[in-house]
Amino acid sequence: MTSCYQILKLHLRFTKILSFGFVNIVLFLALTSCALAQENNQMVRFAKIKVDPLKLVEYTAALKEQMEMAIRVEQGVLSYQAVADKSDPTNITILEIYADSAAYQTHILTPHFLKYKETVKDMVISLELVDLDVIGFVRKPDH
Amino acid sequence: MTSCYQILKLHLRFTKILSFGFVNIVLFLALTSCALAQENNQMVRFAKIKVDPLKLVEYTAALKEQMEMAIRVEQGVLSYQAVADKSDPTNITILEIYADSAAYQTHILTPHFLKYKETVKDMVISLELVDLDVIGFVRKPDH
């Protein structure tokens, strides 16, 4: 009985390992193909903006309002990360991620984006848009 | 006895409400200051790297290895986002976020970072580090 029980235990253990491995492989393939599909369609880019120093506070407020509204109401706007050079806060860079280029085309016709463009038209000295390919994004799970 | 018991119960209830409120206020203040402290302490920057076109594949592999290892083993490395200009993939930018400058100082002494620096020393044409202030980060909850 004891050896039978041990064989059963071993069998169960191997079944668990095998099924766990199988589930892992299926999950891995599913996640990989999802990630690749998403990566290929996403539109990622930098908006590099030089702001009039006298209008920096108003510009920043308009930018924040636009970003927060777009993330809230537009399905295809995935993330905005806006930063300013410490050495010169009038040099602003936004890392923008859209679900795809159609999402971006939709975005630039929204009332909040048009309002932003109108508000900041005399605040922005220059704007450079740089399309990007992702090499890798990694982050802590809670970050 | 009954009224005494009721007063005691009432007293206990108010004490609970008061202490609950007090605990909440303390928690709120602690969490707010934590969040602010975290924001203020985080070290955010761009690493702008020009890579030798002949060594781009090897460079990218070394960069990914470094990023993935750092995120996995270093508590203070919060995120890396590495991108390349579509028009010129030898222009690479990494948006790096560390918990604080101490976390960064620890990072640059780790074996994986030293290995990366040694591996890429003849692949990198130029490196510019730009310290940044965050204007705003917004993203979809599932992104």
From TrEMBL, chains A, B:
InterPro entries referenced in this protein's UniProt entry, alphabetically: ABM_dom (IPR007138), AI-2_Isomerase_LsrG (IPR050744), Dimeric_a/b-barrel (IPR011008)
TM regions (residue ranges): 17-37
GO molecular function, one term: catalytic activity
Keyword Nuclease (UniProt): no
Keywords, sorted A to Z: Membrane, Transmembrane, Transmembrane helix
This protein's record includes keyword Membrane: yes
Pfam families assigned: ABM
Residue intervals of the ABM domain: 43-135
Protein name: ABM domain-containing protein
Provenance organism: Belliella baltica (strain DSM 15883 / CIP 108006 / LMG 21964 / BA134)
